[in-house]
Write a sequence for this structure.
């Protein structure tokens, strides 16, 4: 290099230590300035350019129109090229005139000139690629300025020293160059305008990150605007920015889906190769142990392919940060040497302090950029996994659907996907940990020699212990997830069937089941917490013990080894670096174990069988036909026997076909087979054209009525009006508060069963499909409405007249109008033909028709199809009168489907249908905090039913923390705090003791009190460890106690909540409490509090030590603390609200998912899978917006707080330099080594404070929902009914009035009636008369406003709910079953013998079915009893009633959804088995109550008539009119 610089006046040496180091006025040689210093920026640009150009080619964002800024930047670049080459030509000029300039004067201008020209070209290329702010060029110009500052000072000093300028031309060009590079740097800090065609042009609220400048992105300054807004007022949904396009579900899920499909194809190819006997690769054979085995598709590989690049970028930043972290200990070593050397120049100390600050700042920037990429990758991971699970759930086969319940799949989406996200921050530790460990050991070896091996050996010995603990944790984790799945599944079922639980008084049985699972879960949680305590002990004590052992070996092996300040504190700072990977090791291991469990679960679910899309041939069919099945055999699952076999029939295009047969014969299965929902074992199915499907149980979405009907299609007003009119929905719109804009609640709770079915039918009609598959849609509506629908929609004259219609029905009156009828028996087609042809055959169908059709019906089949609306006497009956209407027509024998009916919400239409037709608006108050949760099911005037979940605002109230402290236990809380105070004291003591040891005077070149010093140091360290592990164990006990109590209180409150609460609160919201919020309380709050206390004690200890070491530091404590608190207040206010919004936006994802899974067959039938995927993606994206900004708030905070930490380092070093004369090296080493680690603790402290505030929201929500209003006590000990009550079954209403909610009109008004024991009373009345309200009052689902109900002379309001409900028997409308054995479904408390159970099954006609099952009474019912037909479920409900057989029986549509033959058998069973009981029958069909003792006619909540049927008909009153309309009078 000296040769390049030449000799003579302008020549110089490359390096001169006396000029640059050992002087009070340092400078660099001209050669160094002209060579290495000038080339450094050039090397940087040339080195980064290839990668940068490749990046720009792949990330084209549209071009930017050339602006004044762009012209100016380019001009400056070209001017710099000109200035550099002016120097080159000047050197050539000198050469031409006989002078010999040093070679450096040719090389440097040439290199710099070419680099400047390159920079100008890059500016233009960036503009064409749409780059608004170039980080690469900003760093380049910054380096140019920094490298030019030294010559800038040097040239001035030289000119002043020599009194003249030696080289005026180069002197002038240099200062022009300096001015230009400074201008270029300043200009590069300004952003260009957004490129043309960028997403910003279409997005109303784009995220500013995409357009932020380099420094803004580096320091997250772009987030400041939101932080200020969040500080001024609580953030709202509208304040949040949109997601960047590359983070949206649409993009992320698609990328992961492609990678997963590629894995599936490779696995399929491998399976084919193995099956065909082809050879597989040698590696595979080795892996498979020498024999070929089918390979499973790897979900991990799919994740790596999709998200690997983001991880690599993060790894680069992490590498830079890790390397920089080892610079600080070396600088500390130099600083201690500087303090020890009184003759050293002062600028050395100031330079070291400055370098420490610069190094810390660079570390901060690199660390947060690494975190930014890794967190975004984590968010994308979660998004991709949720998207894949959602898409898979829409297409899984029925056998998989039986195994994977909604609760389990929700857990995959919520908990398992979150595990992946939680692991991502620790992923870099997989390589970074070993690297940091190796570097630390290397530098320690340099410092302490071979003694360090003792410490390393101790660390190696920790690995087996950690491995054992990790294995145990893994096992506990897997078991815990299973228990959690079971608990969530059970809670999901409880919420679905809560009304039935209340009516049967079964809450305590299910409560015990949930608490049993919870106990097992908590036991594992406690064991996991103890294992965590072992982990915490090892990672807290290992660094100290390693230091102790290393120092002990160092001073023991050689008496001449002196422990001075440099060795001790450089070692301590290196061990602190070593502590970071060790600290994070438990989180990494537990994260990996959790995630590996989740990975297997998700991979297993994604690899499950899907419905065969090729099962139904959609493209080709015999001309003139719409549906053909040839020799079709179908099953619901491969391990089950075929449900349908040997099916052969054809449906001509435009035909109307009826499918009839007894309960369980396979009618609904036939429809499912046509939809491709069943597994086809053999045969072929052809179906050409679009399909509309109306399921037996209407599936209604939680959206407006109009959206339910349109189902994603665009609005055609005339077709929409026609659909509503044909389906008899216009009259309903009149009474709905928002007409067709009324929001329909979850599962259609504010519609009656008939209304739901007609909305479902209207959806089909509006779809204008080619083929209509109608699964018993008429059973949920009254006879006259059924006829209207048949005539207007399904029949030969209806709007679907030219369409192909397959109608499953029990209604005999419409059969004569069918083109032909398919009769099913035992899963086979027994007869096919027209109505008349089948009658002439005299087969089973003809016998059935003759037995169950009234004579009048046989004579006048045409009359049957006449709608009741044609009768002018019926004009006052609106068409909304459906499920509960008492009007029946001539053929009123058809059963009615048992839709899940929410009585409270049905009052919306019922209360609005009085004779004057006045509709009242029923306000619904917002749902939210405990005081505001409504206990009724009214509907707001604008049509909204389910309110948005309330978001708390402002600070979390102190009483929430107090509540949690009480749940943990106040004594436990106090003990934990005292243990941490003790730990801090021990830490400070050990550190000061070490400092004193290093300062100890030496005698004969050695320290004499080594053993004493070592012993005290060891004792203080071990004391720290004992205190830490004690606090961890105590915290584990306290947190487990809090988890148990909070879940218990929530569960008990929800089990005792009134029915109205469940009608107005989505089940997804309640499930979210039991899954996500309880998960936070179980597994997140405890570790967060431990980390908070740990970081707080570290910060306090550090500040105390620095102040003791350098008292001058107290000067800067106040301003730094003020800035710290200022930043913290901005951050916490914003972060807290973002977390709350995130929590609330998560519920809709799971609510929508549950809704989707329930209606998946409908979604598939209408071919709307892609639309629903888009809806789910939108909900996930909405949640992602909150999570995204929440994470960026952490990055924004981190940069600012770590700046405070970096200032602490700087001032600790600076004041050490200033006060060097009065400070010992030991005190300086102590002060600065602690300052170096305070940055992490300060950041962690605020983060944990915020995490605690954010996560304590879970406690806030759980407590809020634990304080909602509850029902009356289940048992009142001082007021229990006598044993055997009721003995007579006598029921008396005395002046009884009831309303649904205070402030609303009475539903029953001054009702007074007396029913004698053993009487059979039918209850009839028009819709809204109060029939169902009476049953609700008997069970005290509704409580009296005034008056009383007496049963056997005992006021039911005086006894507990369970004492009352357990002595009444009801066969409800909704046949709800729970997953578990049939035995559990019949007798959850185990009160009855085996004989009793079989006897009940025999009487309910289920004996044959159950005895045919291999498991018998232990037959497993799937979730909701989905593996039984609706009719069979109804018979199970009958069996329950027969088992209980109390003195009072309430029948509410007991024989819905069963065929007429079974209906007769059931009615006979009820007549014989309940002969001496009081029977109250809510009559939807008058023929069921004509043989009753008396009939009660209700009208507007009052008793209109009450007498025997014969007397009422003779009186020719209301009952006579109804009987006449039904053809019974």
């Amino acid at each position: 290099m000296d040769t390049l610089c030449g000799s003579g006046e302008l020549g110089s040496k490359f390096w001169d230590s006396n000029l640059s180091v050992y002087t009070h006025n340092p400078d660099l040689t001209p050669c160094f300035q002209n060579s290495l210093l000038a080339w450094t920026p050039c090397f940087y640009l040339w080195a980064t350019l290839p990668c940068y150009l490749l990046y720009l080619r792949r990330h084209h964002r549209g071009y930017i129109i050339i602006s004044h800024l762009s012209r100016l930047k380019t001009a400056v670049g070209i001017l710099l090229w000109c200035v550099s080459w002016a120097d080159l030509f000047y050197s050539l000029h000198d050469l031409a005139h006989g002078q010999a300039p040093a070679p450096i004067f040719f090389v440097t201008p040439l290199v710099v000139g070419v680099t400047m020209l390159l920079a100008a070209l890059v500016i233009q290329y960036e503009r064409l690629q749409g780059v608004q702010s170039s980080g690469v060029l900003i760093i380049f110009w910054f380096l140019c300025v920094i490298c030019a500052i030294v010559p800038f000072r040097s040239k001035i000093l030289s000119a002043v020293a020599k009194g003249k300028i030696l080289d005026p031309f180069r002197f002038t060009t240099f200062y022009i160059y300096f001015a230009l590079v400074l201008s270029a740097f300043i200009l590069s800090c300004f952003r260009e305008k957004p490129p043309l065609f960028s997403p910003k042009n279409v997005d109303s609220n784009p995220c500013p990150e995409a357009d932020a400048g380099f420094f803004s992105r580096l320091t997250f300054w772009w987030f400041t605007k939101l932080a200020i807004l969040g500080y001024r007022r609580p953030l709202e949904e509208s304040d949040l920015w949109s997601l960047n396009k590359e983070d949206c579900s649409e993009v992320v899920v698609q990328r992961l889906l492609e990678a997963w499909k590629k894995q599936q194809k490779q696995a399929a190819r491998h399976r084919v190769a193995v099956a065909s006997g082809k050879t597989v690769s040698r590696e595979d054979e080795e892996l498979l142990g020498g024999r070929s085995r089918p390979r499973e598709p790897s979900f991990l590989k799919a994740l790596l392919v999709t998200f690997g690049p983001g991880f690599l970028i993060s790894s680069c930043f992490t590498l830079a940060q890790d390397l920089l972290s080892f610079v600080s200990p070396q600088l500390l070593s130099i600083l201690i040497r500087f303090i020890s050397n009184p003759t050293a120049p002062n600028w050395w100390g100031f330079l070291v302090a400055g370098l420490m600050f610069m190094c810390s700042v660079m570390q901060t920037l690199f660390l947060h950029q690494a975190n930014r990429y890794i967190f975004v990758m984590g968010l994308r991971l979660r998004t991709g996994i949720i998207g894949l699970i959602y898409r898979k759930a829409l297409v899984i086969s029925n056998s998989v659907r039986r195994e994977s319940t909604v609760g389990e799949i929700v857990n995959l989406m919520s908990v398992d996907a979150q595990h992946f996200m939680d692991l991502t921050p620790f992923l870099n530790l997989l390589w970074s940990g070993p690297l940091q460990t190796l570097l630390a050991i290397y530098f320690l070896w340099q410092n302490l020699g071979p003694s360090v091996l003792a410490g390393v050996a101790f660390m190696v010995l920790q690995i087996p212990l950690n491995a054992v603990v990790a294995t145990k944790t893994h096992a506990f984790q897997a078991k815990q997830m299973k228990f959690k799945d079971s608990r969530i599944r059970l809670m999901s079922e409880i919420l679905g069937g809560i009304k039935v639980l209340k009516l049967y008084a079964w809450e305590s049985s299910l409560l015990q089941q949930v608490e049993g699972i919870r106990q097992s879960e908590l036991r594992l949680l406690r064991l996991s917490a103890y294992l965590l305590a072992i982990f915490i002990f090892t990672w807290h004590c290992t660094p100290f013990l390693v230091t102790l052992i290393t120092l002990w070996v160092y001073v023991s092996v050689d008496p001449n080894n002196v422990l001075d300040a440099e060795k001790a504190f450089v070692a301590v700072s290196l061990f602190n670096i070593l502590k970071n990977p060790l600290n994070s090791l438990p989180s990494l291991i537990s994260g990996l174990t959790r995630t590996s469990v989740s990975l297997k679960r998700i991979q297993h679910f994604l690899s499950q069988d899907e419905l065969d899309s090729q099962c139904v041939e959609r493209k080709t069919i015999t001309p003139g036909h719409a549906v053909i099945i040839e020799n079709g055999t179908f099953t619901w699952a491969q391990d089950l026997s075929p449900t349908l076999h040997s099916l052969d029939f054809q449906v001509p295009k435009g035909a109307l076909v009826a499918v009839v047969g007894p309960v369980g014969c396979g009618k609904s299965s036939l429809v499912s087979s046509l939809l491709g929902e069943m597994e086809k074992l053999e045969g072929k199915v052809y179906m050409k054209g679009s399909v509309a499907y109306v399921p037996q149980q209407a599936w209604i979405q939680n959206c407006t009525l109009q959206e339910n009907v349109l189902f994603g299609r665009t609005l055609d007003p005339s077709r929409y009006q026609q659909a509503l009119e044909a389906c008899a929905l216009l009259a309903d719109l009149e009474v709905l508060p928002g007409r067709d804009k009324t929001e329909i609640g979850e599962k259609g709770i504010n519609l009656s069963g008939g209304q739901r079915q007609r909305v479902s039918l209207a959806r089909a009609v509006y779809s204008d499909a080619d083929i209509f598959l109608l699964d018993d849609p008429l059973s949920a509506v009254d006879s006259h409405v059924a006829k209207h629908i048949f005539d207007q929609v399904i029949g030969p004259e209806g709007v679907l007249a030219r369409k192909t219609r397959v109608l499953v029905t029990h209604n005999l009156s419409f059969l004569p109008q069918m083109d032909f009828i398919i009769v099913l028996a035992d899963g086979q087609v027994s007869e096919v033909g027209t109505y008349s042809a089948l009658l002439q055959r005299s087969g089973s169908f003809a016998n059935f028709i003759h037995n169950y059709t009234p004579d009048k019906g046989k004579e006048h089949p045409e009359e049957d199809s006449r709608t009741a609306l044609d009768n002018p006497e019926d004009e006052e009956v609106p068409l909304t009168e459906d499920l509960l209407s008492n009007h029946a027509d001539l053929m009123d024998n058809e059963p009615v489907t048992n839709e899940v009916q929410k009585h409270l919400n049905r009052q919306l239409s019922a209360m609005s249908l009085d004779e004057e037709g006045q509709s009242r608006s029923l306000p619904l108050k917002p749902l939210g905090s405990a005081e505001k949760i409504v206990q009724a099911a009214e509907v707001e005037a604008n049509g909204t039913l389910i309110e948005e979940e309330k978001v708390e605002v402002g600070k979390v109230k102190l009483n929430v923390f107090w509540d949690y402290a009480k749940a943990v236990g106040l004594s436990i809380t106090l003990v934990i705090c005292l243990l941490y105070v003790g730990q801090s004291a021990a830490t400070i003591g050990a550190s000061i003791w070490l400092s004193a040891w290093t300062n100890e005077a030496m005698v004969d070149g050695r320290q004499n009190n080594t053993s004493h010093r070592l012993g005290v140091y060891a004792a203080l360290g071990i004391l720290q460890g004992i205190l830490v592990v004690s606090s961890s164990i105590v915290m584990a006990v306290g947190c487990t106690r809090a988890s148990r109590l909070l879940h218990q209180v929530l569960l008990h409150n929800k089990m005792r909540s009134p029915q109205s609460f469940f009608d107005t609160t989505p089940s997804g919201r309640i499930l979210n409490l039991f899954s996500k919020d309880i998960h936070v309380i179980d597994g997140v709050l405890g570790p967060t509090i431990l980390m908070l206390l740990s970081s707080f004690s570290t910060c306090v200890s550090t500040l105390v030590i620095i102040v003791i070491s350098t008292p001058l530091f107290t000067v800067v404590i106040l301003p730094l603390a003020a800035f710290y608190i200022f930043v913290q207040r901005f951050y916490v206010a914003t972060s807290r609200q973002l977390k709350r919004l995130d929590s609330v936006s998560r519920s809709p994802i799971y609510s929508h998912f549950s809704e989707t899974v329930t209606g998946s067959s409908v979604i598939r039938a209408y071919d709307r899978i892609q639309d629903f995927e888009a809806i789910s993606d939108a909900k996930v994206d909405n949640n992602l917006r909150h999570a995204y900004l929440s994470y960026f708030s952490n990055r924004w905070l981190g940069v600012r707080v770590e700046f405070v930490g970096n200032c602490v380092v700087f001032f600790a070093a600076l004041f050490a330099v200033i006060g060097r004369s009065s400070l010992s090296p030991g005190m300086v080493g102590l002060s600065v080594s602690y300052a170096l680690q305070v940055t992490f603790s300060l950041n962690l402290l605020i983060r944990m404070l915020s995490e605690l505030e954010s996560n304590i929201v879970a406690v806030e929500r759980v407590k809020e929902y634990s304080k909602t209003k509850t029902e009356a006590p289940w048992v009142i000990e001082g007021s229990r009914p006598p044993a055997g009550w009721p003995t007579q079954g006598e029921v008396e209403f005395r002046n009884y009035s009831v309303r649904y909610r205070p402030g609303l009109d009475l539903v029953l008004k001054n009702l007074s009636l007396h029913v004698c024991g053993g009487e059979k009373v039918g209850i009839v009345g028009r819709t809204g008369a109060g029939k169902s309200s009476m049953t609700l009052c008997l069970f005290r689902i509704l409580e009296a406003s005034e008056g009383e109900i007496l049963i056997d002379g005992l006021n039911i309001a005086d006894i507990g709910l369970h004492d009352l409900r357990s002595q009444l028997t009801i066969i409800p409308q909704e046949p709800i079953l729970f997953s578990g054995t049939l035995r559990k479904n019949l007798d959850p408390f185990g009160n009855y013998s085996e004989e009793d159970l079989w006897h009940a099954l025999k009487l309910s006609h289920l004996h044959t079915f159950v005895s045919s099952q291999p498991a018998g009474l232990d037959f497993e019912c799937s979730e909701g009893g989905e593996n039984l037909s609706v009719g069979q479920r109804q018979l199970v409900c009958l069996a329950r009633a027969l088992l209980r057989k109390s003195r009072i029986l309430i029948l509410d549509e007991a024989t819905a959804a069963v065929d007429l033959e079974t209906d007769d058998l059931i009615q006979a069973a009820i007549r014989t088995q309940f002969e001496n009981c009081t029977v109250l029958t809510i009559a939807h069909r008058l023929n069921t109550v004509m043989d009753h003792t008396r009939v009660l006619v209700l009208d507007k909540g009052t008793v209109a008539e009450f007498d025997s049927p014969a007397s009422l008909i003779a009186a020719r009153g209301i009952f006579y009119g109804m009987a006449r309309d039904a053809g019974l009078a």
User: Anything to note?
Assistant: Residues 507-557 form the longest helix (51 residues). The chain has a mean pLDDT of 79.
